[in-house]
Amino acid sequence: MANTLQYLLSRNLSGVYRDPQRLIRDVETLQKTSLGRFLNPTTEPLTSNDGSVTPSVLVLNGTLPMVYRNVTYNIPIDLYLPPQYPQRAPIVYVRPVSSMAIKENHRHVGRDGMVYMPYLHEWGAQTHDLRELCVWMSSLFGSEPPCYARPAGAPRVSAASNVAASYGSRPPAYAQATQSTTNTYSPYVAASNNSNNRSREAEEQERRKQQQIEKEVAEANLAAKIAREESLKEAKLKAEQSRLQKDHEEKLSSMRVMATSKVEYELQVVFRDAKDDLRVTLKNQKLLDYGKEEIQQLLKEGEERKEELMALNDEMDGAVKKLEGWLVAAETQQQQECENGNNDSSSQSSKVDQIALPVDTHSSQMLQLAAENAAIDDCFYFLDQSLAQKNIPLKVFLEEVRKLSKRQFTVKAHLIKIRDAKASNPFDG
Predict the structure, then answer these.
(1) Cα–Cα distance for residue pair 425/429, rounded to 1 Å
(2) Of all helices (H) and strands (E), which one includes residue 245?
(3) Following CA atoms 34, 38, 42, 48 in sequence, which dihedral angle do they give, to the nearest 10 degrees?
(4) Rounded Cα distance, 217 and 126, in Å
(5) What pTM was computed for the model?
(6) Once rounded to an integer, what is the mean pLDDT over residues 216-222?
(7) What does the alpha-carbon distance between residue 75 and residue 246 come to, in Å, rounded to a whole number?
(8) Residues 55, 45: contact at Cβ < 8 Å?
(9) CA 88/CA 392 separation, integer angstroms
(10) With contact defined as beta carbons under 8 Å apart, do 8 and 43 qualify?
């Protein structure tokens, strides 16, 4: 038995239980007692009343003996050990055979066969165990049996329909209980009589009763098989429904994600286009503002230039008037000289000197410098002629040319400065 339990935990239930050593210890302790020697370990999924299905868990199914009115009866039970055991209390179901029925309004057993008792309600991992649980159940069932025999004329109902009539969701039925090799027992009634003076008639009656019990055991095994098949079908149906529901939710979630992504993309495109339009608009606005400032600056400079030109125009008008007055005075003087008839050479040279008369200091300087520059050019010419005719030596020629070149450079530089000065202020008198 211990090897079977070890095999189930290591092969079928690996990683299911948090404390497998505690589980093995409690189960082995229970099976060593008279109450648990007919409880055999197996694995089955647990379907709760709310429809949730857990993975396969360890189940102890078989019979629990109870003493009612000095007669020992065996009650078929399924004892489920949840994955949270021992922190969570076991789940126990009474599994009546076809000739039995669960008592209505039982204080500790519901219509679906589930056992309710204070020991389970007050369950504690450090203070409760399976052995004491079975002692409590045997005591409670002995004081108030959870099952009763159906009347002889009542229709026989299979254990599968008996369980299915209670709740839509239920754990699977128990497997066939292992029978003792020394004492054949029944999941419903196994009378024990220790009388040494049993008569043959009592032995014959016991034999018939034993045959009836074997028949009921066969019926119970068939009912358990049917109930287990129905439970598995229902578990598969619920698993399929859960899978379809999950697929439907995944599709809805995927469609929701796709729709959200598409809306987000469209919003991003609209936002990007609006952002680009706003950026272009702001850039154009800045260009317009800059152009406006430039136009205002140009208008301001134009006004200032206009005022300067008007001032220059006024100065030009004044200069023109002065020039007209000078021309009038020159013509008057010329007429007077013509009338006097002065034809001597001094008068003629005086007329030549008066052909170009400077009107200001700069003009007078330019006239003098220009004459000096022309005289130096003439000197270069005659020095070149003299050297060609060998009237002067080369050394004298070079000395004179060097001296005249320095003077001519100074004269031309002076002329350039006077020209720039007159260009910056052409009407300076």
Answers:
(1) 9
(2) helix 200-340
(3) -80
(4) 38
(5) 0.40
(6) 68
(7) 41
(8) yes
(9) 142
(10) yes
